[in-house]
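The instructor's notes for this session suggest beginning with a concrete chain rather than abstract definitions. Hand out the sequence below and ask the class to guess, before any prediction is shown, which regions might be ordered.
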Amino acid sequence: MRAKDAARLSAIRLILAAIKQREVDERIELDDAAVVGVLEKMIKQRRESIAQFEKGGRADLADAEKAELRVLSAYLPAQISDAEIQKEIDSVISATGAAGAKDMGKVMGMLKSRLAGKADMGKVSVLVKARLAG
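After discussion, reveal the predicted structure:
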């Protein structure tokens, strides 16, 4: 507020409102993992909106969403590298004995608990699919 950064203030208010809404809806107090889940959902929504706005030729709206995306991303835990993601994928595949695409759900289930908040699960899914196909 004091910095007069209206875009950042607006994004932070959106975060707080989303967290409060989820707490009220579910009648619980969110822990850190649940807050990260809320942030990830908001980030996913922003990415989809950016794609739609750019597709529709609305650069002004896309820029506003990108600004919100930067603020939201700042509140997520540090993301792990692609090499670390591959190491986790290999570890889970060997632990579960996954052999093909039919085992993808089993692998993703274990990876989701290990990598929640640390990696983009959409990207992880693509990497797992490629690894199990090859």
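Then share the key points. DSSP finds six helices and no strands in the chain. The two ends are 52 Å apart (CA to CA).
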